[in-house]
Amino acid sequence: MVPxxxxxxxxxxxxxxxxxxxxxxxxFEEEASETVEVGxxxxxxxxxxxxLEHGSSVVIFVSTGPAPRPLPELxxxxxxxx
Length: 82
Fold this sequence. Notes:
The protein is mainly beta. Helices cover 9% and strands 28% of the residues. The protein is rod-shaped and about 70 Å long.
């Protein structure tokens, strides 16, 4: 069978990415991103334009938005200090 190219899915929703994936099997992974909107594809592994055999797995990394940040301890501080 002739290999196919992994499509560029970056920026698409997960559903759109599945529709564009063609002859490949999707593996879903979530990943925090400061720059990519929640629910949008960040990247794939293998990357876009890689040649793969039909039926090969492609990991689709979907944004969960920014990573949680720890809050500072504010108990006992005044409003001005906080």
